[in-house]
Write a structure and sequence with these properties.
mainly alpha; elongated
Length: 64
């Protein structure tokens, strides 16, 4: 549960902005989307390796 501390001088818009920021940082939506479907461990690992290789390729390309 996310708790937002507000003062009497804060507007509803500011409180909503704080809530959205905390919600995004907590990763709640990302976790819910991951739990919608089951992904095998081997597939997760393969995706991590491919992502790391992709990022490494981009870094090498940027260097020279």
């Amino acid at each position: 549960m996310l708790v937002i501390d507000t003062r009497e001088s804060d507007s509803i818009d500011n409180a909503l902005k704080k809530y959205k920021k905390k919600f995004e940082k907590a990763g709640i939506l990302r976790e819910l989307r991951e739990r919608q479907t089951f992904t095998k461990r081997s597939v997760k690992r393969r995706n991590q390796i491919l992502k790391a290789a992709f990022i490494d390729g981009i870094k090498r390309e940027a260097e020279g």
